[in-house]
Write a structure and sequence with these properties.
alpha/beta, Rossmann fold
Length: 319
């Protein structure tokens, strides 16, 4: 008999916090127009927040604004390249002009795709690290430089990854960058606590959604038996991550800072008494031996991935 696992969450539209918890609050969600970022933005709006949706992609911004408004909230879509400090400053200015002073920042935007480290181009490495690590830092820095002189409290959530602890074969660029984000989160939490600014991390598990990145969705076997790969007996729902985000930034979590909350049904901590046979990452990705000709890669996967919300969080190809 198969154990039942963890029960499903409350239905879509349920709130983890009291209605109105974020009334009068302005929240920025980078990459808030797709996937997990859109779910996070929507949940803040459902609790009363006004939400700035930051993305380079106009269609993504429009989708995020529409989702927030459908949930009864107020939203503003602003173009932003988080790799560029001036672009961030201009976007934050636009949010403050349109919605009011910023209280909460969710650093969700990222870029990622699977590739063996020996195949990775220098530009691919730089692009992902620039988006994931540098972009997170630059956004955090910009908000702190607004809050500190004004003597205003604030909360930041940086979306991380479990392979920041474990390493991530096939995702050396993202895993290294996310390890930096984890360390940055812990460092800034200490530096900025005296100013009333809390900084936490949020690590999603396997949470399928309609906006998953094509290069990751194409990983062989990704969608086969997903529920069976998690100790909980099921995959997660984006709204479960969104509830965690709203809690970490809320008045109910004012003594929590420097913490990384993993929302993955205990998946990243599982171990086998007897490990299954090892499969090298090239075989997992159906890549030929290094140096031999490879099938064409998805367009853009070796250049500049879009700063999209990261779809899943597992230790290997499920990432």
């Amino acid at each position: 008999m198969t154990p039942p696992g963890l029960r499903p969450p409350p239905p879509t539209g349920s709130t983890a916090l009291a209605p109105g918890t974020y009334d009068g609050t302005v929240v920025i969600v980078t990459g808030g127009g797709t996937g997990l970022g859109k779910s996070i933005a929507t949940e803040f709006a459902r609790l009363g927040a006004s939400v700035g949706i930051l993305s380079r992609n106009e269609e993504h911004r429009a989708a995020g604004v529409a989702a927030v408004e459908e949930a009864g909230g107020r939203a503003l879509g602003v173009a932003c390249d988080i790799r560029d400090a001036e672009s961030i400053a201009g976007a934050f200015d636009a949010v403050e002009e349109g919605l009011g002073p910023i209280d909460v920042l969710v650093n969700n935007a990222a870029g990622n795709f699977p590739v063996p480290a020996e195949d990775m181009s220098p530009n691919a490495w730089r692009t992902v690290v620039d988006i994931v690590l540098n972009g997170t830092y630059l956004c955090c820095r910009d908000l702190a430089r607004r809050l500190i002189p004004a003597e205003r409290d604030g909360a930041i959530v940086n979306v991380g990854a479990s392979y920041a602890w474990t390493g991530g074969p096939g995702f050396a660029h993202s895993a290294a960058a996310k390890a930096g984000v984890k360390n940055l989160t812990e460092t800034l939490a200490v530096e900025w606590a005296p100013y009333g600014i809390r900084v936490n991390g949020l690590v999603p598990g396997l949470m399928p959604h309609e906006d998953e990145v094509a290069a990751i969705a194409a990983v062989p076997g990704k969608y086969e038996g997903q529920d069976s790969r998690v100790p909980a007996g099921r995959v997660g729902f984006p709204r479960e991550l969104a509830w965690a985000a709203t809690y970490l930034c809320s008045p109910y979590a004012t003594y929590i800072s420097g913490h990384s909350m993993v929302v993955d049904g205990a998946n990243w901590q599982r171990r086998h008494t007897v490990q299954p046979p090892f499969v090298p990452i090239r075989e997992q990705l159906n890549r030929p031996p290094f140096g031999e000709s490879a099938p064409p890669k998805p367009a853009g996967t070796e250049t500049e991935p879009e700063p999209v919300p990261e779809p899943t969080r597992e230790k290997s190809a499920d990432r």
